[in-house]
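Readers outside the structure-tokenisation community will struggle with the description of the input data as it stands. For illustration, here is how one protein appears when written out as sequence plus structure tokens:
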Amino acid sequence: MTTTKALDGLRPSRKRGAAANSTGGNEYPIASGYASNIFTGDVVVNAAGYVNVLTTTTQKAMGVFVGCRYVANGEPKWSAYWPSGTSATDAYAMVIDDPAATFIVQADASVSIGDINSQNFNVTLGAGSTVTGRSGFGINAGTRTTGVGMLRPIAVLAEPGNDIDVAAERAYPKLEVRIVKHVDAYISADASVN
């Protein structure tokens, strides 16, 4: 039910358009000793070639973290989250980086049908759980704007108890979103020099 706020990050949903959904996942390096947890469902960015968790709303997303692998003390590990400060070799994050990917995420307050496909929102930078490995990110409903924002709701998740037209059920709705502040939307090529 969406009468309870339980932010748990972005969950892969589908790919926009008519193509098959391969989830668009790729591996990117994580710096040994990186001193922040990265949870499954967190929006991540590229920082000097390494995956970092999104920490400000001015950053551009490379995608959504869905787990990692690394070698610590000679032992291979697979994890739903990156433990802060881990000293490791061969550390890689799996990131859903396809700019056409969509995700299901819960809002931290009420969102209306008028927000769907017309407003952008930043994310709530919530702390995740080291028990479940799940993110604490959500839609920050108070940041709705027709200007720049990280996420754009494109649909309401069709599940019982999540009817956005019912006041009690739209308190913390689960929405399908796309990342509009994706790094691929900001890439430009310099003109060649003759």
Residues 20-96 form one domain. The radius of gyration is 17 Å.
